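Propose amino acids for all 376 sites.
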């Protein structure tokens, strides 16, 4: 059974994902921030010595709350990534200064897990989520992230996550009340993109998990997504917009490509390609092969590429298909815009490692014990 990419709770803006939770803080759980950051390729270095522990994930304060990954319909067998390489933080990807993991690092300098979490997670750029439906403030919150990236000459990664009925399983509450309201929200989101480079991961789960909708409702959603891509690219011609391809353990490339075509992903007027593995665990080689098959089936210009969420896929997907904070997972390749792979534009940390899916911590909250487990 398939579950949505994340569970979104409330409003916020920070470097990690955004979720609306309470503002309780502790050594293991940090309160929600506002937006999330972007990451990159390559393996992280061997874990330094640090004390063990596991934490819960929260979401950013200015952007929106963190969501939670959903179970894969057809989980792929676990595969461990090979060839560990030293972590190299991209000089081009932006690390937003307001995130739950950075908040935890600041508040817990004496925690034995501090060094490991700071060096292997907090130091990496990650995506900033905007998961709450707040039309009056969305432009300013997006602008705060994009202008911060532009000021440093770096590329922010932003995630609009407010499509109506975004979670067939009911795990991620929220979203716009209607597609008309969503269209208006996207207009305001686009107004905050500025004029610099920015990557937009448009609505995780919105295409791959649309089977629960009626044919009419699905067509309406895809029309709204196609419009969203056009609006985002018209507002900022430098914006790179990627559409939801699910992941390699979900729909077949042909089925996913057919839906993506209807959602506008095959035309450069609204799309730069697809994204996969958001909040999931499938290995990078599996995702590369899958994304290329999706792009081939999608058609469209050769310029279309793919970005892959590598934040938690270092050990592959669990054999039992567990999606909620499964044990035994590891950080994947560090975020980068230089993958060295044809048609693979970037490896990103879309899901901030340590932000819980709802099992090892409250949904969307940063859980130190979980972060430490992934990092070590």
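Proposal:
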């Amino acid at each position: 059974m398939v579950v949505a990419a994340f569970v979104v709770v409330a409003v916020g803006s920070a470097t990690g994902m955004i979720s609306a939770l309470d503002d309780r803080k502790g050594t293991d759980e940090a309160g929600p921030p506002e937006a999330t950051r972007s990451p990159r390729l390559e393996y992280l270095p061997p874990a330094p010595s640090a004390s063990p522990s596991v934490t819960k994930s929260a979401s950013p304060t200015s952007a929106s709350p963190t969501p939670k990954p959903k179970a894969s319909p057809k989980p792929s067998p676990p595969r461990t990534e090979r060839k560990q390489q030293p972590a190299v933080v991209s000089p081009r990807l932006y690390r937003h200064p307001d995130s739950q993991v950075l908040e935890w690092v600041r508040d817990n300098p004496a925690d034995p897990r501090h060094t490991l979490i700071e060096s292997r997670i907090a130091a990496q750029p990650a995506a900033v989520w905007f998961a709450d439906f707040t039309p009056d403030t969305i432009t300013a919150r997006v602008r705060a992230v994009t202008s911060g990236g532009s000021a440093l000459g770096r590329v922010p990664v932003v995630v609009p996550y407010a499509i109506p009925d975004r979670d067939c399983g009911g795990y991620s509450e929220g979203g716009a009340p209607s597609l008309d309201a969503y269209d208006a929200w996207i207009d305001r989101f686009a107004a905050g993109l500025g004029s610099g480079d920015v990557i937009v991961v448009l609505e995780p789960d919105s295409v791959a998990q649309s089977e629960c909708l009626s044919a009419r409702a699905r067509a309406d959603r895809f029309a709204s997504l196609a419009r969203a891509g056009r609006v985002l690219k018209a507002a900022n011609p430098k914006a790179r917009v990627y559409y939801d391809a699910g992941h390699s353990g979900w729909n077949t490339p042909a089925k996913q490509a057919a839906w993506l075509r209807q959602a506008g992903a095959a035309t450069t007027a609204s799309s730069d390609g697809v994204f996969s593995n958001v909040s999931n665990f499938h290995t990078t080689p599996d995702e590369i092969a899958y994304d290329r098959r999706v792009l081939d089936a999608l058609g469209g210009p050769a310029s279309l590429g793919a970005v892959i969420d590598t934040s938690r896929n270092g050990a592959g997907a669990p054999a039992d298909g567990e999606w909620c904070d499964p044990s035994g997972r590891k950080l994947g390749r560090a975020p980068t815009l230089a993958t060295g792979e044809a048609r693979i534009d970037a490896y990103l940390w879309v899901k901030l490692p340590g932000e819980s899916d709802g099992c090892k911590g409250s949904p969307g909250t940063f859980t130190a014990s979980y972060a430490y487990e992934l990092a070590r």
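The beta strands are 29-30, 55-57, 128-130, 157-160, 198-201, 239-244, 273-276, 305-309, 344-348, 366-367. The two ends are 30 Å apart (CA to CA).
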